[in-house]
Amino acid sequence: DSKKKGKNCLSVFDDAMQKKLIDEHDLTRDLILALNRTEEIAPWFQPKVDPGGRWVGFEALVRWNHPKRGVLNPGQFIDIAEGQNLMPALGEAVLVHACKLMSAWRRQYPIQNWTLAVNVSQSQLAMDDFPAKVEEVLTKTNLPAHCLQLEITESVVAENIDGCIAQMNRLRRLGVSFSLDDFGTGYSSLSYLRQLPIDELKIDKSFVDTLLLYEEGYSIVRAILQLAQSLNLSVVAEGIEEEAQLRALVNLGCKRYQGFLFSRPQAPEQIRDCLAAMKIVS
Ligand code: C2E
Ligand code: MG
Ligand code: MG
Ligand code: MG
């Protein structure tokens, strides 16, 4: 009987595995096609806000508008893109698209001091010609370098710290700035933090989640803010969903926020409508 059960379990597992493999195969094929078309892979935008709730910039977050499956989130295809070595192409598509939009919005609305943050993967940063690509994109889209911020994660840096620092310095010479994303979740070493040419830390959502759940959660966020202050780094807290979290962060001296409390990531058309409806005092 137990043998039979085991066999059944095994066959259920096989079906699931097989479906996953077919799914991945289909998605890989579709992704290669999508990267050759312009409109399927596109950034959505989530605002970063100041203590008054005013927008001060955006983070570009990739979405794939799949012809059959609808809008897919990065969680549904980024691993596949990484595995198939498609991340550099995907990342570049997002960078170009996001810079174009930001540049157009800057021409139309008084948002000259706003920043556009774009996530960068390890495989992108590691490309020798990445700084040259970024420079070319900025020139072609007519976006000033000081408007562009690149978000990298600790895991990106951990793989090759010296190489990363060299690449980052090349990009900084263009005028681009850096934010350390998901801070506190990777294999962070505090000695990296001193060496890395970054301007900003992003407190990971997991710390915002526990901020008001345990005293330790609160202490950790406070410690991150103190650390940032003594290293002269700005701080953004990500994943804020509740008013009480915001109040606690304001009290701790955090000055920049991102989260569903303010806005979910939105399609470019929605962002443009918001900008058009906004009275922006810059
Ligand atoms: P991330 O860079 O840490 O981005 C934050 C993620 O948290 C986004 O998910 C965003 O939609 C979500 N988020 C923001 N506020 C809240 C909130 O209040 N509550 C909850 N539950 N979630 C919130 P998304 O768009 O699914 O992106 C996931 C990850 O995929 C990103 O994490 C980033 O690591 C990666 N990613 C997205 N776009 C790109 C890209 O263009 N290039 C690269 N290399 N990675 C990207
Ligand atoms: Mg990010
Ligand atoms: Mg993040
Ligand atoms: Mg995150």
TrEMBL record:
Record-given protein name: GGDEF domain-containing protein
Signal peptide (from-to): none
Highest rank taxon of the organism: Bacteria
Residue numbers of the full-length protein present here: 514 to 795 of 795
Record organism: Marinobacter maroccanus
Domain EAL: 24-279
